[in-house]
Amino acid sequence: MYPNQQQYPRPGGGGGASNPPYPQQTPYNASGAYPQQQQQPPFGGTPQYGIGAGLTGIYIQLIKILCGGIDENALSFDIGNSSTAYTTQAPTSGPLLTFMLNIMQGYDMQVQDLQQPESSALFYHRLIEAFKFAYAKRSELGDPLKINTTDLIHNLTSKDYADSIRAKVDDSKTFGFEYYGGTWLDRYTVGTAHLSVVGLDGDAVALTSTVNLYYGSKVLGPETDIFYNNEMDDFSTPNTTNYFGVPASPANYIAPGKRPVSSMSPVIIIDKESKRIQQVLGASGGTRITTSIAQVSLLNLWFNKNIKDAIDAPRLHSQLLPQEVIAERGFDYVRNLLFFFFSSY
Q1: Given this model, what pLDDT does residue 63 score?
Q2: What CATH number does the domain located at 35-342 have?
Q3: CA 203 to CA 41: how far, in whole Å?
Q4: 3-state DSSP helix/strand/coil % of the chain, to nearest 5
Q5: SS3 277
Q6: Where are the domains of the chain?
Q7: What is the mean pLDDT of the segment spanning 325-337?
Q8: What is the pLDDT of residues 6-62, one digit of tens each?
Q9: Which of 40, 65, 97, 187 is the most buried (most CB within 10 A)?
């Protein structure tokens, strides 16, 4: 956040915003696992109470009905040597979250890195660059049921590809948007909510729901008193520009039966050996969702912050276009970044 700017809304896992100020909204509502989670059985394990098979099967059947019969396996990837993360497939931004974390995993991050001005500035510089490369790839994302995203998803989830992108990060400078390969992004959305639930029987749910913009279509159902969504606005329209004045994405053009690209990227992270839950995360905040979840996950898993402190910590956001970095008020590392770059010359 720039010193003279209005405070931006602070969604649960969301952080940062685009340059124009937006109205205030409800404070963050995402959460991690309960503090008592170490007493739970393994993820999806045998329930302790009387439903027999736990609630997992009920959730799965309900989700299948709500999704029109679409049945997809979660996207999974390793975090370090001890954790496995599960997130959503395209056209959500689960693959982008995977890509961001894979890039950052290749750095030798230590807890003390955030305790010194120069090392903390370097960490956040690298994180911002990872965000930019990920959002460049977002312009290629679309519904895999309608367009071929096989190579894209393979790259976004490949450790080798993350290594090759990490090699392009220059620790002493940044670049114009052309360097990162992207030319557009989707508009800011503010009609999203997230719920994280961890049960005593080992079940976990990370559920993100959205009507897209404020009050969706602004049309109220006469019988239900529920606002209709305007999810069609998540698609790109040829020969138009979005909120930020940048071109539409051909991979996200409207087509019959097609799902629009979304920033939603709920994630569940478990310990590889014990299968116990480590994180259940998600967020609201449009394009800020993915960068915010990445930061919370990194602060909790790599820098040993408890889940509340990781969520409460001020954040940075960059999505390649517009070419700017947004820092929340109270983000002391902005001064460290300036110190780091000026001392490099």
Answers
A1: 60
A2: 3.60.20.40
A3: 9
A4: 30, 15, 55
A5: strand
A6: 35-342
A7: 76
A8: 333 344 443 333 233 333 332 333 333 333 333 445 555 543 333 334 555 665 666
A9: 97
Count of positions (residues) in the chain: 345
Which residues participate in the annotated binding site for L-glutamate? 210-212, 234, 262-263, 286
What residues are labeled active site?
192
Q: Which of 77-91, 189-203, 257-271 has the lowest average pLDDT?
A: 189-203
- The three-point CA angle 62-68-70 to 5° equals 85
Are residues 198 and 33 in contact, defined by beta-carbon separation less than 8 angstroms? yes
User: Which residues contribute to the annotated binding site?
Assistant: 210-212, 234, 262-263, 286
> Which pLDDT belongs to residue 81?
86
Q: Both ends of the chain: CA-CA distance in Å?
A: 26
Tokens encoding 221:
């159902």
Q: Which amino acid is at 272?
A: K
Tokens 């839950």 appear where? Answer: 277
229-265 pLDDT, tens per residue?
988 888 888 877 554 344 588 899 999 999 999 899 9
What burial class does residue 91 get, using C-beta atoms within 10 Å of its C-beta: 0-12 exposed, 13-18 middle, 19+ buried? buried
Give every CB contact of residue 312 below 8 A, 6+ residues apart in sequence.
Answer: none
- Window from 50-64, 76-90, 202-216, 326-340 with minimum mean pLDDT: 50-64
Distance CA 192, CA 212 (A): 6
Listed in sequence order, the residues at least 6 apart from 186 whose beta carbon sits closer than 8 Å to its beta carbon are 138, 234, 236, 242, 249, 252, 261, 263, 286, 287
Six-digit token string for 248: 């539409």
What is the C-alpha to C-alpha distance for residues 47 and 40, in angstroms, rounded to an integer? 10
Structure tokens at 127: 């994180």
DSSP for residue 93: S
Collect all residues with Cβ–Cβ distance below 8 Å to 286 and sequence separation of at least 6.
Answer: 14, 186, 187, 188, 189, 190, 192, 263
Q: Which residues are CB-neighbours of 31 under 8 A, at least 6 positions away?
A: 12, 196, 280, 307, 311
